[in-house]
Amino acid sequence: MRILALAYVIVLGAGLGLASAHYAVAGRPPFGMVEVGPWTAWPRSGGRSIDPYLRAYLARGVHLPLGSGEGLELVAERDDSGQALDGRCRYLVTGTTPATRAWTLSVTDPDGQAFRLPLERSGFTDAEIVRDERPGLRIAAATAPEAGNWLPLPAGGRFQLRLRLYDTPISGHAGELRPDGLPRIGRVDCR
Hints:
Blueprint: H1 2-26, E1 34-36, E2 39-41, H2 52-59, E3 71-76, E4 89-95, E5 102-108, E6 123-125, E7 137-142, E8 150-152, E9 160-166, E10 184-190
Parallel strand pairs: 7-8
Antiparallel strand pairs: 1-2, 2-3, 3-9, 4-7, 4-10, 5-6, 5-9
């Protein structure tokens, strides 16, 4: 009877330990996270003072972070109203980016992987954007093509927007960002 109880405790402990370890590194940890409006950043992800949970998450090979002097990646899973980004909706990304040498805006799945979209395009760079007389950027994100700067979305389901700022002075001061200094994500309509 004692052996059965001991085996039960060992199996339960191992199961709970493995489950909690998987949960701890399955997604980006909340430690070191900075939220600015709908955007979230982990400014220390490429530096020496990286959190051990974030180090374990990155060791799983999800993606390579920008170094502390290289730039900053911001991820949005929600629009400005707090609703989850959904491929069945149209969005308008407007506003400005902080001072940076270059930037990219891309669409990924909730795990950070690029979508296989029909046009083989899942992002924009600052060099590719069409500019008009209005200052700042204006990008339509939808499944159906639109005039101007159009970012294709998956036909349905959740997705993320990833804004990468390269060679920016704010990479070490992400906590000082304000929502009006980053692009806004407005939901236009849903089908």
